[in-house]
Design a protein that fits this description.
It comes from Turnix velox. Catalyzes the formation of 5-oxo-L-proline from L-gamma-glutamyl-L-epsilon-lysine. It catalyses: epsilon-(gamma-L-glutamyl)-L-lysine = 5-oxo-L-proline + L-lysine. Keywords: Lyase, Transferase. The protein is mainly β. The protein has a single domain (about 1-135), classed as Hypothetical upf0131 protein ytfp (Roll), CATH 3.10.490.10. It is built from two helices and seven strands, in the order βαββββαββ. The protein starts with a strand and ends in a 33-residue tail after the last strand.
């Protein structure tokens, strides 16, 4: 099992959450909520209004999201779904646990409440994205007015 931190359309209540609960794609178990220890720019970009965490540590905000444990099958699905490694790159990041629902001791945060999780961020983005507004929490129906376009609608 691996830990994955999702901050965009894969979170509960967001357009692609259905993939996280589709056991045909593998197993994903919600463990809790967290935020990146370091600040990162979270932008909404492209003609489909996709959320991207730019891999520029120290810029932007601590980004809020959800922590899951996933099996190998789900991790492979997520790599494909996220266009890894071309569009996003899966890297380990330190995530601060805000709320923990995970049962038992497996995978719990240390004394400081910090976990290492895989995160799909990107280093392969157009330079102008750095000038877009930065968010700390993504919601496809947020005040930004940039509605996410589902793949099946593209």
């Amino acid at each position: 099992m691996a830990r994955v931190f999702v901050y965009g359309t894969l979170k509960k209540g967001q357009p692609n959450y259905k993939h996280m609960i589709n056991t045909a794609k593998g197993l994903a178990k919600f463990q809790g909520r967290g935020r990146t220890v370091e600040k990162y720019p979270l932008v909404i970009a492209g003609k489909y209004n996709i959320p991207y965490m730019l891999n520029i540590p120290g810029a932007g905000h601590q980004v809020a999201g959800e922590i899951y444990t996933v099996d190998e099958q789900m991790l492979r699905f997520l790599d494909e779904f996220e266009g890894c490694p071309e569009m996003y790159q899966r890297t380990l990041m330190s995530i601060e646990v805000v709320e923990w629902e995970g049962k038992g001791t497996e995978g719990q945060a240390g004394d400081e409440g910090i976990l290492e999780c895989f995160v799909y961020s990107t280093t392969t983005y157009p330079p102008e994205w750095v000038g877009l507004p930065y968010y700390d929490n993504y919601d496809s129906l947020g005040k930004h007015g940039l509605a996410y376009v589902l793949r099946e609608s593209r």
